[in-house]
């Protein structure tokens, strides 16, 4: 499943970039996500909870950050294993930043999400909805955080 | 054909009401989940949520803390007994439980043994398995690319994902015809992966007696004897040799091919029973059944027909890619890795043909079993009957007329097909004529023309199939080396009542009735007095089981031969009782009388009594016979189906307005049962044509793992089938009968697909992939600007 | 498939039910159980407590009073199908009930459950949107009314708070010249909708649309109100092209380029399609689903107009 | 997990059992009361093999908790027959070949029973609609429709006979 979101933030590109390469702040902007441990410079342990009405799924796993400072492109690879046989999730997200003006920055988020297990099987497209919602919330939070 | 026997005897041709019905109608059937044993434990299975990956760790500690959970078996546990792998019926190997790698979603990973269903299920939820996921190979075409990972690293010498290459026919001669032909048409088509989805899932009750070292397995199997042999091959080294194993197949809630294989669950249940010394029951739930049990079909075919300008077919060429999942677990005869796919020249006379199939491994469940069809005949018929329509449209002929002009003429039988079959008998034109008359073909074509003028979409689909059933002659057919004969043992008691046991196993086909009628036909005993038994390996003679519509052609014939042996003995006894020579006797079903003196007679019952009380000098007492029947040939039933569909231009929905099926299965034993088989088969043809498909996403998820998404037709979608028949007896069966159980499943999908394509043909459409979903149809309508 | 362990409570009164919901952690309300039990068996939902309101008296009535059709929490789909008032005056509800799951499921499934589940694939929400229904939630502080437009918050999410029960749905009684229809495209009986469209139209004496309600099923994260489509229809006059009125109309169409009935309906249906946000799945592509929203809306508008025309004042 | 005392009257006979909250009605019937004529086919309320009558209403018993049925009158296939073993509907299934493997049959019979109780002379379309929650994989439904029609006709004829 591929997702693309593009949005403009009223903040300088440097600030936006600083945000996107800070694992703690990125996690805070993803509802349900948390960082629990720093393994090395680029790798963290964490968890992700997704809840949709009566259904909830929790994933534990690792997050790796790969930064391309020159092009201001940050890649995140998050791999999680669901609890209670819920299956696995594997997300590859790339965020890139382009300055449109001194206080205007365009952020592009491209993600590829692979989810296996019962939620993907029975979800009637639910995971697509959930992912879309998650990225929408992410962009909203980023916009809000940086605009203030 | 008028029955030869009275209604009291109820032999062939009588629509006898089924002997098995009262118990089913009163809730007294004995299906696998109805069995219990004192102290019985329950097995439930932990399954992989991912399609491909390494098992990093299995933590069973939380499961074992649950009240009632006694044990968790993993691949490592079975490895200690060398029971973690087993052979498939196609001499490939498959895992019982993995020790390091999972190969498809829903693969068995561990077995939880508990004192109740509920505790076992809780145990399954509590087992924690850590996986290192890998990218699965879901596309069979990609599986053959150079950079595809090799999936079966366990197999020595396996350097790619090709399982086998098979071909039939004369490639060179066929290519030559194609090079010089006036017309060549080509279609690429996929007959997708589907699932039998019998309403009863699979299961077993394994009951190991540690004192005697004896194992009884009650299980939902269509082939109990062959399964006993396989179990002995799998577990002989741990003391379960064949005489220590009894397999009992009770009432089966639908099989259709899905209950032929040995599934890992059976072996895990047996292992658990042996290890714990207690009876262990395993019953699949529906999601397990749909996701892990053997699939059917999944053939990607690239077909071409060469013809002359008038549409006379000259040659056929098919290249096929067969997706077998991670193991080749078909239940096909060993000489036929692509089953009986080479029946693909069907009902048409042509100069030559060539077919090839490449089988590949992917990260899907293993299988390739039939879904109510005789080893790939459905794929073959679908391919041919579709492309024949493409040819008809290309040369501008009515599809029925084009078929008629290409039929093998009835004088040509027995007919030798270019791909090596000897068709026993046929009169294809007669079936076509009857079907056209029943449906009012010419009127429909007129109606269609009028509707087309008004922009309405109506289509008429024709299919004239030839089936190939009754595997089979032992010179060609075996499974794991065991010849595909079948057997009957008939024993007439002193009071003239009989028991007859067979090596097959009914799953709803009504063997208890049909076989009794066969014995009645031959011995003149009332069918009501013939008790039929199947499915218990301790009592029934060895046979290969019921699938591929083989019961009547093989075990039914064995019943005839055994009954005839008994009748021969009875004749000797009758001569003795009537004090005449055997040559002076006349036989009318049930009675021997003296030629010219019809009042001097004895009944078969008299003979039976005498067999135990008043024998001719030197004759062995008793009245029984056993026959292992090795058929001289397969049987080749056929038929013409015509279907009318209407298409909603707004939504793309297809509705089957009428469907006429004319079948010819030779002489008919029970017309009511034959019609019932055809009704059921048609509905299992409707399903794959319009609704059913086992699909996967690129991440390996099974997207049709429950009845929410695996769409079995209900009474509302199913049309009121109209059936008729012609009778062309088989010269190769002692009753002139042919198999019938699967003809309709084979013939219906192309008839429906042809009707849909026919409705769209004027828009330039030559093919629609099945299942023909509304969104697919709408996509075509929209692309051509006719969607409303 | 076996549900996970939970505790079961069967309160005998609404007060008791509310008290239980207030007291228990992680409790889920169950009425017919036809959505909840499958989720439990799949172990997708694992509540610690289930409060079964099936034995609470007084929640199983359908009545038309005070200008509303009132549907209690325990009214089953079958009861709705068999209700004479519904059959005579609310055919859109009958349309909806009849395409939900299958007759056996409908024997236990409730209308309120269908709505409270918050599943955009369920059928009643679209109809409730078209009918401008009000949801009555009862909680520890008593009753509160929630307009249907404020009720659905997203995938499986509604305005119901923990501790609240959807006790009644109130549907405004239709005017004399009104009619509605629900159409659902499904892959086979018992399936969730590929798409569904509910249209309810209220006309004045002259036959002009005074109010239009259009709701859509399974075409986004939540049930959808096609407001723009409603606006297209509101104020328009359909049909009756006979006599002087028809002649005027044809002249007006020709001169002032007033859109024809078909053009108006097509415009409304396109607006409905534009309001959707479906995802591609085994039921079809995004394009297909959007178009089905359009096709079903068109058909539902026609049926609603037919029904509105058939409903004479005498027929009530 | 709480235990509950549940009393159900099945085919006229009262049974009381102490059950877990989560016990499904179908398991109470099959496992606790040993009435194995009611089957399980799909677990997700699609197939109807588990259909029983709960206070006369055909219900998929795999999607009802045993505790929900406390106090109810339950009818299963075992309770259909009179003294001669088969009622008109059962006879209809036998005469019209409305069953093959027999696994869906008990559910079909219970749905058919309720249909005929509500509608003595259903049309083909009404029968097909009524059994649309019961899947059959063997028969193709045509003969099931005929079986219900047979029972309707026979019951009507018997009733007419009694009136005379």
Short synopsis of the structure:
The complex is a heterotetramer of chains A (148), B (788), C (316) and D (164). With 148 residues, chain A is α+β, with helices and mostly antiparallel strands.
Can you walk me through this structure?
The complex is a heterotetramer of chains A (148), B (788), C (316) and D (164). The longest helix of chain A is centred in the last third of the chain and has 22 residues. With 148 residues, chain A is of the alpha+beta class. Chain A is built from four helices and seven strands; from the N terminus they run E-H-H-E-E-E-E-E-E-H-H. Chain A has a single domain, classed as START domain (Alpha-D-Glucose-1,6-Bisphosphate, Chain A, domain 4). Chain B is α+β, with helices and mostly antiparallel strands and 788 residues long. Chain B has three domains: 153 residues, Aldehyde oxidase/xanthine dehydrogenase, molybdopterin binding domain (Aldehyde Oxidoreductase, domain 4), CATH 3.30.365.10; 185 residues, Aldehyde oxidase/xanthine dehydrogenase, a/b hammerhead (Aldehyde Oxidoreductase, domain 3, Alpha-Beta Complex), CATH 3.90.1170.50; 324 residues, Aldehyde Oxidoreductase, domain 4 (2-Layer Sandwich), CATH 3.30.365. Chain B has 19 helices and 32 strands. In chain B, the strands form nine sheets. In chain B, strands 3-7-1-14-11-12-13 form a seven-stranded mixed β-sheet, sandwiched between helices. A five-stranded mixed β-sheet of chain B has the order 9-17-16-15-10, sandwiched between helices. In chain B, a hairpin with a 4-residue loop joins strand 11 and strand 12. In chain B, helix 14 runs parallel beside helix 15. Chain C has 13 helices and 14 strands. In chain C, a hairpin with a 5-residue loop joins strand 12 and strand 13. Chain C is globular. Chain D has a five-stranded mixed β-sheet with strand order 2-1-5-3-4, sandwiched between helices. Classes of the chains: A alpha+beta (148), B alpha+beta (788), C alpha+beta (316), D alpha+beta (164). The interface between B and D is large, with 56 and 59 residues.
Across the major sheet of chain B, the strand order is 3-7-1-14-11-12-13
What integer is the average pLDDT of chain D? 95
The radius of gyration of chain D is 16 Å
- How many distinct beta strands of chain B? 32
Quaternary structure state of the chains depicted: heterotetramer
Structural class of chain B: alpha+beta
Strand order within the widest sheet of chain D? 2-1-5-3-4
What CATH first level of the largest domain in chain B would be assigned? Answer: Alpha Beta
CATH fold-level assignment of the largest domain in chain D = Ubiquitin-like (UB roll)
pLDDT averaged residue by residue of chain B:
97
């Amino acid at each position: 499943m591929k997702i693309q979101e593009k949005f403009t933030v009223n903040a300088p590109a440097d600030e936006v970039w600083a945000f996107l390469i800070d694992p703690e702040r990125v996690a805070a902007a993803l509802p349900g996500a948390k960082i629990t441990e720093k393994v090395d410079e680029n790798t963290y342990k964490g968890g992700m909870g997704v809840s949709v009405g009566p259904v909830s799924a929790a994933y534990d796993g690792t997050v790796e950050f790969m930064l391309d400072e020159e092009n201001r492109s940050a890649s995140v690879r998050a791999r999680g294993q669901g609890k209670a046989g819920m299956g696995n999730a594997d997300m590859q997200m790339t965020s890139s930043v382009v300055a449109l003006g001194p206080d205007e920055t365009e952020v592009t988020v491209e993600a590829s999400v692979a989810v296996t297990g019962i939620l993907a099987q029975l979800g009637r497209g639910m995971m697509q909805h959930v992912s879309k919602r998650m990225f929408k919330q992410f962009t909203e939070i980023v916009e809000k955080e940086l605009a203030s | 054909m008028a029955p030869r026997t009275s209604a009291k005897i109820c032999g062939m041709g009588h629509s006898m009401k089924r002997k098995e019905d009262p118990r089913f109608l009163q809730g007294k059937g004995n299906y696998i989940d109805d069995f219990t044993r004192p102290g019985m434990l329950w097995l439930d299975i932990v399954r992989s949520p991912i399609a491909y990956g390494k098992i990093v760790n299995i933590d069973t500690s939380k499961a074992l803390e649950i009240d009632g959970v006694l044990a968790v078996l993993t691949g490592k546990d079975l490895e200690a007994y060398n029971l973690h792998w087993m052979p498939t019926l196609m001499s490939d190997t498959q895992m019982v439980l993995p020790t390091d790698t999972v190969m498809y979603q829903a693969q068995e990973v561990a077995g939880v043994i508990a004192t109740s269903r509920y505790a076992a299920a809780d145990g399954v939820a509590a087992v924690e398995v850590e996986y290192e996921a890998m990218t699965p190979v879901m596309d069979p075409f990609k599986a053959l690319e150079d950079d595809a990972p090799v999936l079966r690293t366990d197999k020595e010498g396996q350097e790619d994902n090709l399982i086998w290459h098979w071909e039939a026919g004369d490639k060179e001669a066929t290519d030559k015809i194609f090079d010089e032909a006036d017309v060549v048409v080509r279609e690429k088509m996929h007959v997708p992966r589907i699932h039998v989805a019998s309403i009863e899932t699979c299961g077993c009750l394994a009951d190991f007696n540690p004192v005697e070292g004896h194992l009884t397995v009650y299980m939902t199997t269509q082939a109990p004897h062959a399964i006993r042999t396989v179990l002995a091959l799998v577990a002989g080294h741990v003391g379960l040799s064949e005489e220590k194993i009894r397999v009992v197949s009770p009432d089966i809630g639908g099989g259709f091919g899905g209950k032929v294989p040995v599934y890992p669950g059976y072996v895990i249940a047996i292992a658990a029973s042996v290890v714990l010394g207690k009876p262990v029951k395993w019953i699949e739930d529906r999601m397990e059944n749909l996701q892990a049990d053997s699939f059917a079909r999944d053939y990607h075919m690239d077909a071409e027909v060469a013809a002359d300008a008038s549409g006379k077919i000259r040659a056929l060429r098919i290249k096929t890619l067969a997706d077998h999942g991670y193991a080749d677990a078909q239940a096909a005869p060993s000489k036929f890795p692509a089953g009986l796919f080479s029946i693909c020249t069907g009902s048409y006379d042509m100069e030559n043909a060539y077919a090839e199939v490449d089988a590949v491994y992917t990260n899907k469940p293993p299988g390739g079993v039939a879904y109510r069809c005789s080893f790939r005949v459905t794929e073959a018929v679908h391919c041919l009957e579709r492309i024949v329509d493409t040819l008809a449209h290309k040369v501008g002929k009515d599809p029925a007329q084009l078929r008629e002009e290409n039929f093998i003429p009835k004088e040509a039988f027995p007919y030798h097909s270019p791909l090596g079959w000897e068709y026993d008998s046929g009169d294809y034109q007669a079936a076509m004529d009857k079907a056209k008359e029943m449906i009012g073909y010419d009127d429909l074509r007129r109606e269609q023309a009028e509707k087309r003028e008004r922009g309405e979409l109506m289509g008429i689909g024709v299919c004239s199939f030839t089936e190939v059933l009754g595997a089979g002659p032992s010179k060609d057919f075996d499974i794991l080396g065991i010849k595909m004969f079948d057997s009957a043992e008939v024993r007439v008691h002193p009071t003239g009542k009989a028991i007859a046991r067979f090596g097959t196993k009914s799953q709803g086909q009504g063997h208890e009735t049909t076989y009794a009628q066969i014995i009645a036909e031959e011995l003149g005993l009332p069918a009501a007095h013939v008790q039929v038994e199947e499915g218990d390996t301790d009592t029934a003679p060895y046979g290969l089981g019921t699938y591929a519509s083989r019961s009547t052609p093989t075990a039914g014939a064995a019943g005839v031969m055994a009954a005839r042996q008994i009748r021969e003995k009875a004749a000797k006894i009758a001569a003795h009782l009537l004090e005449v020579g055997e040559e002076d006797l006349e036989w009318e079903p049930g009675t021997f009388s003296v030629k010219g003196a019809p009042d001097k007679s004895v009944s078969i019952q008299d003979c039976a009594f005498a067999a135990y009380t008043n024998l001719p000098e030197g004759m062995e007492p008793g009245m029984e016979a056993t026959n292992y029947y090795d058929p001289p040939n397969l049987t080749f039933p056929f038929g013409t189906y015509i279907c009318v569909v209407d298409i909603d231009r707004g939504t793309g929905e297809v509705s089957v307005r009428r469907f006429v099926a004319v079948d010819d299965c030779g002489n008919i034993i029970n017309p009511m049962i034959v019609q019932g088989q055809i009704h059921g088969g048609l509905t299992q043809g409707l399903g794959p044509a319009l609704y059913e498909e086992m699909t996967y996403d690129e991440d390996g998820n099974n997207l049709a793992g429950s009845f929410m998404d695996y769409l079995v037709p209900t009474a509302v979608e199913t049309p009121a089938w109209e059936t008729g028949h012609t009778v062309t007896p088989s010269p190769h069966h002692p009753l002139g009968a042919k198999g019938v159980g699967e003809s309709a499943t084979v013939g219906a999908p192309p008839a429906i697909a042809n009707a849909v394509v026919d409705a769209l043909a004027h828009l330039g459409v030559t093919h629609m992939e099945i299942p023909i979903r509304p969104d697919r149809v709408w996509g075509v309508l929209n692309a051509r600007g006719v969607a409303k | 498939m076996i549900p996970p362990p939970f505790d079961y409570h069967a309160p005998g009164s609404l007060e008791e039910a509310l008290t239980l919901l207030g007291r228990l952690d992680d409790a889920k309300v169950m009425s017919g159980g036809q959505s909840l039990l499958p989720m439990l068996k799949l172990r997708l939902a694992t509540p610690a407590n289930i409060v079964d309101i099936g034995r609470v008296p007084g929640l199983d009535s359908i009545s038309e009073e005070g200008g509303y059709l009132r549907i209690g929490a325990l009214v089953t789909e079958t009861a709705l199908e068999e209700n004479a008032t519904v059959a005579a005056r609310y055919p859109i509800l009958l349309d909806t009930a009849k395409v939900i799951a299958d007759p056996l499921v409908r024997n236990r499934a409730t209308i309120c459950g269908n709505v409270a589940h918050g599943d955009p694939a369920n059928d009643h929400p679209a109809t409730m949107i078209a009918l401008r229904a009000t949801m009555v939630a009862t909680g520890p502080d008593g009753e509160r009314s929630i307009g249907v437009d404020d009720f659905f918050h997203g995938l499986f999410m509604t305005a119901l708070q923990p501790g609240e029960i959807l006790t009644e749905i109130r549907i405004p009684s239709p005017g004399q010249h009104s009619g509605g229809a629900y159409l659902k495209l499904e892959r086979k009986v018992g399936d969730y909708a590929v798409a569904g469209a509910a249209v309810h139209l209220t006309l004045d004496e002259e036959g002009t649309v005074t109010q239009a309600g259009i709701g859509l099923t399974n075409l986004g994260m939540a049930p959808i109100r096609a407001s723009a489509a409603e606006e297209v229809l509101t104020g328009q006059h359909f049909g009756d092209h006979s006599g002087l009125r028809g002649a005027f109309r044809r002249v007006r169409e020709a001169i002032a380029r007033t859109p024809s009935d078909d053009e108006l309906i097509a415009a409304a249906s396109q607006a409905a399609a534009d309001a959707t946000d479906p995802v591609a799945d085994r039921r079809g592509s995004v394009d297909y689903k959007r178009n089905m929203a359009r096709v079903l809306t068109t058909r539902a508008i026609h049926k609603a107009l037919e029904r509105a025309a058939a409903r004479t004042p005498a027929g009530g | 997990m709480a235990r509950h005392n549940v009393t159900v009257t099945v085919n006229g006979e009262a049974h009381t059992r102490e059950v877990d909250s989560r016990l499904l009605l179908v398991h109470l019937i099959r496992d606790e009361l040993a009435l194995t004529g009611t089957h399980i086919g799909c677990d997700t309320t699609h197939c109807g093999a588990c259909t029983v009558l709960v206070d006369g209403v055909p219900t998929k018993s795999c999607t009802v908790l045993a505790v929900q049925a406390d106090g109810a009158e339950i009818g299963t296939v075992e309770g259909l027959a009179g003294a001669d073993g088969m009622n008109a509907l059962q006879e209809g299934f036998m005469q019209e070949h409305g069953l093959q493997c027999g696994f869906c049959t008990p559910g079909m019979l219970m749905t058919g029973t309720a249909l005929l109780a509500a509608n003595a002379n259903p049309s083909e379309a009404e029968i097909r609609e009524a059994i649309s929650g019961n899947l059959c994989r063997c028969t193709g439904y045509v003969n099931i429709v005929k079986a219900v029609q047979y029972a309707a006709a026979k019951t009507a004829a018997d009733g007419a006979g009694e009136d005379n």
